[in-house]
Amino acid sequence: MDLEYGPEYQDFTKEVESFCEKYKGLSFTDGSNNPLGSSGGFGGPQMSRSEWQKTLIENGYFARSVPKEYGGYGGEADILKSRIIAAEFSKSNTPGAMGGQGIDMLVPTLLEMGTEEQKQAYIKPTLHGEMIWCQGYSEPNAGSDLASLQTKGDLVGDEWVINGQKIWTSTAQYSQMCFCLVRTEPDAPKHAGISYLLIPMDTSGIEIRPLVDMTLKAGFNEVFFTDVKIPAGNIVGKRGEGWAVANATLGHERGSLAPPDATMNRVNMLMQLMKEETLDGKPLIEHPIYRDRLMQIQGKVLAQQSHALRLLSAKLNPGADVKIGKMIQKLTGTELRHELEGLAIDVMGEIGTLYEDSPHLKNDGTWQFIYMYFLGLIIGGGTSQIQKNIIAERGLGMPKEPKVEGA
Amino acid sequence: MYFGLSEEQSFFQDNVKKYLAEHATIDNIKHITSGDKKNLSAEIHQGLLNLGINGLLIPEEFGGLGLDLLFAAVVSEALGGGVGPTPFIAPYVMAPTAIKHAGSKTQQENYLSKIASNENRFGVGFSEFIGKRNDAGITFSDNTLNGRAMFVLDANDATHLLLADEKGQIFVVDAKSADLEIVKLTTVDKTRQYTEVICKNLEAELLEHSSDSRNPIYQAIDAGRIMLAADSLGASQTMIDKAVDYAKERKQFGRAIGSFQAVKHMCAEMAADLEPCYALVWQAAHCHDHSPDEARLMACHAKAHVSEMSKGIAKKATEVHGGMGFTDLLGLHYWFKRIGLNRQILGSPELVREEAYKTQV
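^ Those are the sequences you sent over. The predicted structure of the assembly is below.
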């Protein structure tokens, strides 16, 4: 056991610290109309979202290991440095890089499986925040059973002709591009009939309908494709390999949905709130039942933080057996965050139900919003029940449910 | 940066596991707990002493191995995993920790070296410092102790006892003294021994620095709590392994019951609950020696959290076994009961979480 990072990393931490200090209070000139990042703080320097993105890349604080020719920093991947950057940015409230499915999912996929031409064309504008992507995976009849998707693509001459419908497509209304799973081989077994296509969202025949969710805020969409024609070369991997291409990065999404450090920040925020708010003249934290519930959750989050260190160490020191350890992250992380946000609502009682712009709202109404939002994350990206199947079948080696004829 | 067990720690743990698998078989556990082969427990204890479990935490200058608490935690995990019917936490973890922090130089020399050489074996009774039940409790005056200490760990076959009063002062007493009565308490967990100790004008030696501050007794209690968490961790893992194996083999409705989601989801939940407990216990043990600012918080949360997760696992793993899980024949209940005891000893989750809160204000 050695929890020290070593002297090289102490220097690096100082370097990141002074960078954050320099940009303290940074705000964005185009903050409010960019869906993928915060609008920043107050009283500091001003720049556009895209300029900030480039500044982060130049300093190696974002896209660190992406080659320079594709618009990245071109450095060695360094897990500890990435962790230090995340921790220092979070501590100093410095806005991080833009996220989104293009950056988090498509870029790693292209780096691994894209053609040289695709890498040249898409990675740089995506990293710079100039090209936003949406993910066309789920369909009305292909949710947990994603591989049964039916949106079809026919190769006619040198074009794919796409017909069908996608759902739960976040940010589709802002996106220039969509990476999409499409059934191109109707006669092949279901997992082997899918291709991974890249579709410009301004192609004619695409219709986007916003799908309002229970938070009344977040932006999912339904996307309809009617005779949408794209070049035959807009495919990652070969025909019928789309399932494998998609799965190469799906695990990455699952792990990053509910990082325990962010959950611990919320625990600390709740503890502060419980010291300030009173019930019958007594701070909430002095009410033993509420206090015990907070401590229960703090213990769970501490366990997840320790667990994240163990997984981090396993990346640095290959050979450690963390197979099940990785599989449980999505399930335990999203469930715990939902539980924590729900506790905040409980301790506030009626006040906890206030929403939107109501008087007496606490912490900008984030507790209710995130409570509901995380129910979405518990369901999305493979429901908790699907996660349990994965843990039991692939982690513990338990037998699968017998197949139903024709499914 | 490396977060995990060292090769030496894994190797030592494997040796303890192997030894228990060979000697603490279910049949032997049944003999020991029914009391028909009294010396079997002592033989197993001797076997573990041969591996060196008594000297792990004793500094080298006193003839021990001078290892840190994480080393002891991996042993405790192995003992929980094999429901080891033998003293460990009181004599070889809590006692040396208490004496190291509370003893004068002379007391350290005197007792630590004798623990390492196996001349002294300590039982530990700190329950009344953590939470005094009814009229229990001991008082110290004129170098004598009077009163009752409940749930003294591993007092049988001990040469000495460490007892604490409500203020956290720690006393060494002779376990064989005529002024002391040891009453056996029968708990559900028959793999370990708990006693009540009644003192009547019992001669006692104060561990010198235990009256300076509460730090020494907290050091010993936290170390004990981390050991109990590790013990429940090991016991829970064994219960999960047994449940998963059973669910793969047992057939009903023409298929293995493990293919039903109702069953496999219980197994997945157990694994998801337990997996982060490894890291929590390891980090709590590591902090105990290397990160004093976080040590108390981590120890309290490790004890409380692992207790909560283990309680759920003990129930679910038994349910996966169906009626067989409920029988004495299968013996799964030894793990269930061990987890049940660990939860209450040295503070139930609610008490320990309250302490966790108080370390933060």
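Residues 70 and 120 of chain A are 6 Å apart (CA to CA). The longest helix of chain A spans residues 288-316.

Shout if you want it in another format.
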